Amino acid sequence: MRLRAVCLTLALLASPALADTASVADQAQRAYDIYAGGLSQQAFLSAGYGDKLFTNIDGRWVRLNGPDNKTGIESYGAFTEKYCKSPPALTLASTSKLTLTMTTALQAGTYTQSFTLVAGSTFGEHTDPAPYLAALGLGPDKTGDAADQQRALLLSLTNGMVQIYRPSEDALVMTRDRGYPIVMVRCPAASGG
User: Is residue 191 one of the residues assigned to a domain?
Assistant: First the structure.
């Protein structure tokens, strides 16, 4: 009898279809938690996502670096503490479930980007061109075809539609049609800049 129980247990563990049944449901639940904020379809599409997404979001955040293509070394979060103490740390703020404001302070200036909920997890991004380009060193004092092309490229990458996800309390992800995902993490409360 004992041998039969051991054989049955081993057979169940070895069977991928039976072993993964619960994990598939867990994986699906996690996907809905990340990409739909754990909301029903109706709540997600009727502006309920922003309320959950922007809860407790105000504060200083930094962008993480992904894998380094030249060395293959992943630097995810390796420099978070250093970046949190630097002026380029981002400030995120939300005054409603429909909007997010991101402020970036660089040596050459500060600019603000606004994200307004369209539907679901889709947000319209708006960046005021004058302060943005000035902060990046491409203000009106830079002339010529090369500067004009750089400005056009930068503006095309910052204005448009983005998807925003919050996989955890201290992480925020933005994806665009063109470009690598932007992953941001919250700075510890003691970090200042």
Answer: no
pTM over 0.85: no
Buried b (16+ CB within 10 A) or exposed e, 57-74: eebbbbbbbeeeeeeeee
Nearest 5°: phi and psi at 92? -105, 140
Residues 135 and 154 reside in one and the same domain: yes
Q: Are residues 2 and 88 both part of a single domain?
A: no
The CA-atom distances, in angstroms, between 85 and each of 11, 59, 89, 91 are: 54, 13, 7, 13
Q: pLDDT in tens for each of the 193 residues of the chain?
A: 443 433 333 343 444 444 445 588 888 888 888 888 888 888 888 878 888 889 999 999 988 866 655 665 556 666 677 778 876 678 999 989 899 999 998 888 899 999 999 988 999 999 999 999 999 999 889 899 999 999 998 888 888 899 999 999 999 999 988 778 888 999 987 655 4
**Domain match, 58 and 137 both:** yes
Question: What span, in angstroms and rounded, lies between the C-alpha atoms of 33 and 160?
Answer: 25
Q: How many domains does the chain have?
A: 2
13 in any annotated domain: yes
Domain containing residue 4:
1-35
